[in-house]
Structure formats: structure tokens, C-alpha cells
């Protein structure tokens, strides 16, 4: 599975929603992600992709859409 597929799978598990057809939708504004979901997302990214993002360094505007999450994850690999 590549980074995009992994991120989309994680997001589907966390939100219960297939976000692959809404790649530029803001996950926070839509209510799909909240602070607890953010922590779970970061833990899953670390576990599945080996990406370590401390919560203290998490900038919500850089991670608010599926496309941004994928791009950020790819840049940190």
C-alpha cells in the first residue's frame, strides 16, 4: 500500500467515512476530525508509516484535508 492508500485507509477507519471523493474538504470543519481524532491520526501515521509528528508541532491548517495529510506524510517519509 502506498502513502495515499494508507492515509485514506486510516482516515476511513477514524472517521467511518470514505473521504477519497472529498480530497480537499476540511475534515475539521466537516466534523470528521477533532482533537482526539488528530491524536489517533498521528499515532496511526507513526505506526503504519513510521512518521513521527509530535502533537506540539502539529499545525492544524497543514493537516486539514486528505490531500494535505497525504502531502505532509509523503514529505516526512
TrEMBL record:
Alphabetized GO MF terms: D-alanyl carrier activity
What does this chain do? Carrier protein involved in the D-alanylation of lipoteichoic acid (LTA). The loading of thioester-linked D-alanine onto DltC is catalyzed by D-alanine--D-alanyl carrier protein ligase DltA. The DltC-carried D-alanyl group is further transferred to cell membrane phosphatidylglycerol (PG) by forming an ester bond, probably catalyzed by DltD. D-alanylation of LTA plays an important role in modulating the properties of the cell wall in Gram-positive bacteria, influencing the net charge of the cell wall.
Which family is this sequence assigned to?
A: Belongs to the DltC family.
Indicate where this protein resides in the cell. Answer: Cytoplasm
**Pfam families membership:** PP-binding
Keyword Cell division annotated: no
Q: State the pathway, as annotated in the record.
A: Cell wall biogenesis; lipoteichoic acid biosynthesis
- Source organism per entry reads Pediococcus argentinicus
Which keywords does this Swiss-Prot/TrEMBL entry list?
A: Cell wall biogenesis/degradation, Cytoplasm, Phosphopantetheine, Phosphoprotein
Which residues are annotated as modified residue O-(pantetheine 4'-phosphoryl)serine in the UniProt record? 35
Chief place where the protein resides = cytoplasm
What post-translational modification does the entry describe? Answer: 4'-phosphopantetheine is transferred from CoA to a specific serine of apo-DCP.
Carrier domain: residues covered: 1-77
List the record's Gene Ontology CC terms alphabetically.
cytoplasm
Instruction: Please name the InterPro entries in this protein's record.
Output: ACP-like_sf, DltC, PP-bd_ACP
Output this protein's name. Answer: D-alanyl carrier protein
Q: Name one GO biological process term.
A: lipoteichoic acid biosynthetic process
Instruction: List where this protein forms a coiled coil.
Output: none
Entry's Gene3D superfamilies?
Answer: ACP-like (1.10.1200.10)
Amino acid at each position: 500500500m502506498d502513502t495515499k492508500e494508507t492515509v485514506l485507509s486510516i482516515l476511513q477507519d477514524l472517521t467511518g467515512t470514505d473521504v477519497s471523493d472529498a480530497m480537499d474538504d476540511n475534515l475539521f470543519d466537516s466534523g470528521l476530525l477533532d482533537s482526539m481524532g488528530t491524536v489517533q491520526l498521528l499515532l496511526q501515521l507513526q505506526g503504519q508509516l513510521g512518521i513521527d509528528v509530535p502533537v506540539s508541532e502539529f499545525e492544524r491548517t497543514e493537516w486539514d484535508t486528505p490531500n494535505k495529510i497525504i502531502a505532509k506524510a509523503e514529505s516526512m517519509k
